[in-house]
Design brief:
- This is NAD(P)-dependent oxidoreductase.
- Keywords: NAD, Oxidoreductase.
- The structure is a single chain.
- By secondary structure, the protein is an alpha/beta fold.
- It folds into 2 domains: 162 residues, 3-Layer(aba) Sandwich (Rossmann fold), CATH 3.40.50.720; 121 residues, Orthogonal Bundle (N-(1-d-carboxylethyl)-l-norvaline Dehydrogenase, domain 2).
- The chain has 13 helices and 9 strands.
- Helix 8 runs parallel beside helix 13 and helix 11 packs antiparallel against helix 12.
- The model has no long low-confidence stretch (mean pLDDT 97).
- Bound molecules: NADP nicotinamide-adenine-dinucleotide phosphate.
Length: 297
């Protein structure tokens, strides 16, 4: 593997994704806002850089996996941002869940330097990232997509091409996350309904996943919701709130009411107000239980 790749953002998702790229033989330059997250990668030959700009080779590929719009904008266009260095034929592979309008703005900013923005947000939690089993929702310029395809293969089990508009990958990701978040709310209500009426949460979950809901989403989240184990966050609740806000904003911009998203938004806001932002997103189910008169405040 000849290409040196920049990797920015070594959180719950970024770290295992970067590990997959090292496994595939890429040389990595990594950056994380808080230093010290890269120790394990450095032992395997990655180089830790002090700024986003330093992670980039002119004309190279840089991957971002960051919390939100503000983080992505800072590392791209802020002081010591990488956009100014990426240069002609450089590629920004943008894998965070961010807004479609930021994607369009960054694509424009990169275009001014002759570089390309590819949207590549992912479906799958950190365990899927560690196993190279993410699904990647890709959009942007065709030639750039071709160049990154070996990287995508190292990190994912499948890529869905959503065309050339750099916003479309992010729109598809928000649509998928709306489905996931609304399903978690319904699932939590379903298990609590069963529990209130004398059927155990685990028994109900197994009944559903063994019959009409035999799909990865229901197995993965069913396990967490039935056990009510929310303290090891694969996906932090605060990031779920960020996603539902992006979903509502994108819906409003396209003149689309999303009543189910409003409900989930309130549920997540309440959870955040109660100090549950660092729990797993499925901890929204605590609110469902509390409303049903079950368990603690
Ligand atoms: N976790 C999942 O299951 C999952 C699944 C699919 C997609 N996603 C999406 O993937 C992205 C990353 O998620 P994650 O779970 O890895 O989040 P995370 O563990 O909270 O990591 C967030 C990363 O963003 C960095 N960051 C935050 N604010 C920053 C700022 N202002 N400037 C620079 N860096 C900043 C953090 O750096 P520090 O270490 O300095 O805080 C960290 O590297 C999010 O967009 C999320 O919605 C997550």
């Amino acid at each position: 593997m000849t290409e040196t790749v920049g990797f920015i953002g070594l959180g719950s998702m970024g770290l295992p994704m970067a590990r997959r790229l090292l496994d595939a033989g890429y040389a990595l330059r990594v950056y994380n806002r808080t230093p010290g997250k890269a120790v394990e990668l450095l032992e395997r030959g990655a180089r830790e850089m002090k700024t986003p700009a330093e992670t980039v080779e002119p004309g190279g590929i840089v991957i971002t996996m960051l919390a939100n719009d503000a983080a992505l904008e800072t590392v791209t266009l802020g002081e010591h941002g990488m956009a100014a260095v990426l240069g002609a034929d450089g590629i920004h592979l943008s894998m965070s869940t961010v807004s479609p309008h930021l994607a369009r703005r960054l694509a424009e900013a990169h275009r001014a330097h002759g570089s390309h923005y590819l949207a590549a947000p992912v479906l799958g939690r950190p365990t899927a990232a560690a196993a190279g089993k993410l699904f990647i929702l890709l959009s942007g310029m065709a030639a750039a997509k071709h160049r990154v395809s070996p990287l995508l293969e190292a990190m994912g089990q499948g890529t869905h091409d959503l065309g050339e508009d750099p916003a479309q990958g992010h729109i598809a990701k928000l649509a998928a996350n709306f489905m996931i978040l609304a399903s978690i709310e319904t699932y939590a209500e379903t298990l609590t309904f069963a529990e209130k009426n004398g059927i155990g949460r685990m028994e109900m979950m197994k009944l559903l996943t063994g019959t009409i809901l035999n799909a990865p989403l229901f197995h993965l989240y069913g396990e967490l919701l039935a056990k009510e184990e929310y303290t090891a966050p694969g996906f932090k609740l605060a990031l779920g709130l960020k996603d539902i806000e992006l979903i509502l904003e994108t819906g409003a911009n396209s003149r689309m009411p999303l009543p189910a998203a409003d409900l989930v938004h309130n549920r997540l806001l309440t959870a955040l107000a109660k100090g549950r932002g660092k729990l797993d997103m499925t901890a929204l189910a605590l609110g469902v239980s509390e409303d049903a008169g079950l368990r603690r405040e």
